Amino acid sequence: MEPWLIWVGVAGFLALAEMFTLTAALGMLAGAALITAGTAALGLPAPLQLLVFTVVATLSLVFLRPVALRHVLPPQTERLGVDALVGKSAYVVSEVTGAGGRVRIEGEEWTARAYDETLVIPPGTAVDVMEISGSTALVYPRE
């Protein structure tokens, strides 16, 4: 059997496997096998064919796969859980200092501390949630 035909078969198998895994890695290897099939059709000896396959596969996996994955898997834009509370406004229920206090964030009462530990924030003040540390909101007065 002709070596280029074997490389085409390997490329087809890898492409089919890529359809089931969707990792982009097997697709890059299939492309490398197709390029190697072209070099085999030109008459390159087997050791050089393996070298071509190795170089093309390595370059595609290192440089092309990260780009492909960025387009396939968009970054998470929505914050969930307590991360979604950062940046929200809150109202002080009981005086907030660097040691403690209570705030109401979206209808729920949270323990709170002042983001700047030297501040004393009186009840009724509007504050911004700067950070959530455990179950405590670190807040700063709105300007």
Span of the ends, CA to CA: 78 Å
When the domains are counted, the total is 2
User: How many separate helices?
Assistant: 3
Shape: rod-shaped
Q: Rg from C-alpha positions?
A: 29 Å
**Structural class based on helices, strands and sheet pairing:** alpha+beta
Q: From N to C, what is the helix and strand string?
A: HHHEEEEE
* Number of E strands: 5
Q: Which ranges are low-confidence, i.e. pLDDT below 50, for 5 or more consecutive residues? A: none
Instruction: Output the strand order for the largest sheet.
Output: 1-2-3-5-4
| Largest sheet geometry | 5 strands, mixed, barrel
Overall mean pLDDT: 92
What would you say this structure looks like, in words?
The structure is a single chain. This protein is of the alpha+beta class. The chain has three helices and five strands, in the order αααβββββ. Strands 1-2-3-5-4 form a five-stranded mixed barrel. α1 (3-21) packs antiparallel against α2 (25-41) and α2 (25-41) packs antiparallel against α3 (46-72). The model has no long low-confidence stretch (mean pLDDT 92).
Features of the shown structure:
5 strands; five-stranded mixed barrel; 44% helix; OB fold (Dihydrolipoamide Acetyltransferase, E2P); 3 helices; 143 residues; 2 domains; alpha+beta
